[in-house]
Specification:
Length: 86
């Protein structure tokens, strides 16, 4: 999935010195301290720029950022809501 790969690449570049080894859609990002609460806001900025979405403040919750899969699901949900509003 393009969304997941883009997120993996960004996380690897921003926090793992470019190393994607062991990073997949189910890697527990917050549990392994790959991303902390401040990092979530950096990631939100990336998502908004990369996918041309607006992440509502109520969606900036730990559960939406636990794994790459959860983040990709958030992006898909926001994009679908955006498409449905047209």
């Amino acid at each position: 999935m393009i969304t997941e790969q883009s997120i993996i690449d960004y996380i690897a570049t921003a926090w793992l010195d470019g190393d994607t080894e062991g990073l997949d859609s189910e890697t527990p990002l917050t549990e392994l301290s790959i991303i902390d609460s401040a990092g979530i806001f950096d990631l939100v900025h990336f998502l908004q720029s990369e996918f041309r979405i607006t992440v509502p403040l109520h969606e900036v919750a730990p559960g939406n950022f636990q794994t790459v899969g959860a983040i990709a699901a958030l992006v898909d949900r926001i994009q679908n809501e955006k498409e449905g509003a047209r």
